[in-house]
């Protein structure tokens, strides 16, 4: 809701109103990135916020945040100009509004400096892992939501094609090299011998 000193001037009654600002989305992306506000401005100083934000690992429903022009005027905070044709989108599948978390970027420290870590869900075994520089270890799902969570990465659920309701995190394929060529993973101290194109997973040593 708008503050009294930031009230909205109604074009009909010409009186400032403490209206409520609502933002809606026309379409949803395949990858949804949510950036949590982790600072508070006090005078000329910024203070980091460590409020615990509970976020779902599966089934984040974005349907309440999607608007369509075909809705009645009472559902929207404004009316379309008569020369604008209404945009009538086909009914969306309910699963197109569902997202599953696959990674979390964490920030540890203060506004002046700190350290970044990450929680990532492995696309092959469905388990969560903690990444802290070269250190990788498994974590429980209950440990993913912390006060250090900073950026959340969600992927649209693609269960409509598979016929299941389970989250499906897309697996990324490593670049294909000619047969018999060795390459080194830049993020891990390991080397692979390329053969037929296949899915490769780098395991830290």
TrEMBL record:
Residues in coiled coil: none
USP domain span: 1-157
Gene, per the UniProt record: Usp43
EC annotation from Swiss-Prot or TrEMBL: 3.4.19.12
Listed PANTHER family: UBIQUITIN CARBOXYL-TERMINAL HYDROLASE, UBIQUITIN CARBOXYL-TERMINAL HYDROLASE 43
Domain of life: Eukaryota
CDD domains linked: Peptidase_C19R
Endoplasmic reticulum found in the keyword field: no
Keyword vocabulary terms for this entry: Hydrolase
Chemical reaction(s) catalysed: Thiol-dependent hydrolysis of ester, thioester, amide, peptide and isopeptide bonds formed by the C-terminal Gly of ubiquitin (a 76-residue protein attached to proteins as an intracellular targeting signal)
Swiss-Prot/TrEMBL GO biological process terms: protein deubiquitination
Pfam families: UCH
Signal peptide: none
Protein name: ubiquitinyl hydrolase 1
GO molecular function, one term: cysteine-type deubiquitinase activity
